[in-house]
Structure formats: structure tokens, C-alpha cells
Amino acid sequence: MLEKVNSYVLGVVLISLLLMTGALYTFKLRFIQLRMFPYFIKNVKKGGNNGQFRTICMSLGTAMGTGNITGVASAISIGGAGAVFWMWISAFFGMATVYAENSLSAQFTDKKVRGTMAYIEKGLGSKCLAVFFSICCILACFGMGGMVQINALSESMRNCTDIPPFFLSLVLFLLIYAIISGGAKRIGSAAQILLPFATVLYTVLCIFVIAKYSEKLPYVFSQIINEAFGIKQAAGGISGYALSKAVSAGIRRGVFSNEAGLGSSPILHSSAENANNSAMQGMSSMLEVFIDTMLCCTLTAIVILCASDDNTVRTAFFHVMGVKTDIFLAVIMSVFALCTVTGWYYCGETAFKYLFKSRKTAIFAFVFSLTASLGAIFKAESIWTISDIFNGLMAFPNLLALLLLFKHVKNE
To answer: How far is it, in rounded angstroms, from Cα 274 to Cα 365?
Structure first.
């Protein structure tokens, strides 16, 4: 039943909306993804403030969760190598989408209403849609942002340790609560310390694997292109169903990874010290999508296609590092998962404050920490599906606002 609902929510309509919105902003803003990067790098070299870097780490940490590893593996298993190409497409258009999201957020955010809810309520003029978005955001933060991430973390820990699931769950509960109870500043500071380390370590490990199997790279890239457009399937007499699976799996997992179009990025950037600087927040968010999907997800995909027999990163790394693989993966997965969990908590907390007009979030933080930590005990097959559903439901009101408020972004 959940898969049936999921197929409707994340079906052709949503995929078309995501691509259409990204394409609209890409062409109307004259390929802003390419034009604005030199300007962004120039400003960073002049000395970006520490608060902005903290916001980037928090937002990037939310995106760079276990979806960068298990999500990519899932996309390849479902849609074949061609799914990787459609992840690139979703990321390229998604960069324009997140620029638009954060530009609107900067224009409409104030002390009372922040992020996505601000431009849906005040820009679009729909309180009902803002409430619907907030409810979906809270449910998504418990699913994709909480239990799914901790479940993936616990599986990687079980591969290299004998820690009892209950004890691991307890430790994670205390750790998550200790971080999120400190608010956006502590969440961002934790991501600022942990995320660069894990990202560099993961990148180096991937490069080692790719270097060992470098002779396979031409075949891997030709495989990605051929399967992306159904050339291989057509040559084998297979129908367009395989092609549709590649497109669907690639875009769905791309969105799961970089979250472009979901509306989570504007919430996180609304906590920045210069949250009303639309150009800086928009450019920062584009950089996050690039690092998340174009860099990390691509590395994961190439590693799997070059060296894995069962479409898992673990097998690919094992060919290079042997028995040390599980330890390295456990460290990386733990950092990615914790950054995602704490960042998504902030999204859920902001939505909670919007719905209930309350600054007292201690109970919400406790319940979130407890629910997320239970991912170390329970299986997550159904949770993955439920997470996809609420991610999709978040996207609909957000994309509607982006399409109808285009003039505000263009004018800005």
C-alpha cells in the first residue's frame, strides 16, 4: 500500500514539476548555476564570515546524509547505471531551484516567519499551504531526517562492532539530544567540525578505489550515457520501461540526496547571520547541491560501477582496504547521519514553531531524539517509503510557490 501511495506522490507529476521548475529558473536566469560561481568564489576569498560557513555546513550536512551512499546504491540497483545521469540532471536544474528558494526566503523571512513558510504565506498569500508544508516537514524530519539515517548508521556499526542495538540507541539518543538542545548555533558548530573531516576522508577513499580501477572509467561513463537514454536497452529489445526506471530512480534519489525543491534549504539558511542577503544565501545553497550530488554522489556511483559486484560501496572499498573497510565506513556513515539528523531537526523545529507559535521546543527535541534513536533498533524498509512520501508532499506547495513567485526572484 505504501509503495502504491509512493508511486503516485513521487510519480510523473512531481518529477515533471521538479524538472520544469529547475529548467524555468535555469533558462530565465540565464544559467545562473554557471554565471554566479566565479562571483561566489571571489566573495569567499575576500573573507566569508564564520557564521556563513557554519550555515553552509549545517545545510550541507542535512543533504549529505546516508543518501550519498545508500541512496546512490539504491538508485543504481533500481534504475541501472543510467540513473546516475539523471541524478546529474536533477542536480544541475536543482542548483537553480535552490537559488530561487533561498532568494525568496531572504526576501520574505522576518522574526516571526522564516524560510519556506515565509514566502508561501506572505508571498503566495496562502496560510493553508504553509501549514500543510509545515506538517509534512515535521513528519519528514522524523522519517528521512531521523530514523532512516540512524538505521543506516546502526547497520554500518554492526558490520564492525558487537554493540547491542539497545545500547547504541541509548548513546545516540543522548548525543542527538545534547546537540539539538543547543539550537541552530550548536547544530551548525557540530556540522562545521565533523562534516569537512568526513567529506575529505570519503573523497580520498573513493579516489583510491577509482585509481585502482581506472582502466574501467571509459566503460563506466559510456555505460551511464547508454543506459540513461535507453540505448543499451533498445539494442537488447527491452521496452521503454527500463528507461523510465532509470529516469525515476535517478531523479528521486537525486532529490533525496540534495533536497533541491523540497523546501528544507531555505529553512536552514534562514538561520544565517545574513539571512536577508539573497545573493549570498542563493549562491551558498547552489554550492551545497554541487558538492553533494555532482561530487560526492558521483564518486559513490563511479566506485560502485567500477569495483562492486553487488551495487554496494562496502564491496568496492573492500577490494582496496580489506578488513579496515567496515571501520572507515562506520565512521563516515556516523558523521553523515548525525549531521543530517541534527540539521533536519532544525527544519522540523522551525515548522513546529510556525504551527504552534511556541518557542518552547524542549519536548519536541526530546521526542525527536527518542524517535530517531529507535532507528538503531527497528528495520527501516517501510520508513524509507514513508520518508519518500512526505518528501514528495513537501515539494508540491514549495514548487507551486516557486513557479508563481518567479518575478520576485528575477527582480531580485
So the answer is: 26
Q: What is the C-alpha separation between 166 and 96, in angstroms, rounded?
A: 43
Distance CA 90, CA 378 (A): 31
Q: Are 326 and 156 in contact (CB under 8 A)?
A: yes
pLDDT in tens, 165-212: 889 889 999 999 998 888 778 887 888 888 888 888 888 888 988 998
Write out the three cell numbers for 144: 528521512
pTM above 0.70, yes or no: yes
> How far apart are the C-alpha atoms of 90 and 262, rounded to whole Å?
13
Q: At what angle do helices 313-321 and 298-307 cross, to 10 degrees?
A: 70
Amino acid at 100: A
* Residue 184 vs residues 25, 179, 281, 315, 349: alpha-carbon distances, Å: 30, 9, 16, 37, 10
CA dist 281 and 285 (Å) reads 6
CA distances to 23, 35, 105 from 30, in Å: 10, 8, 21
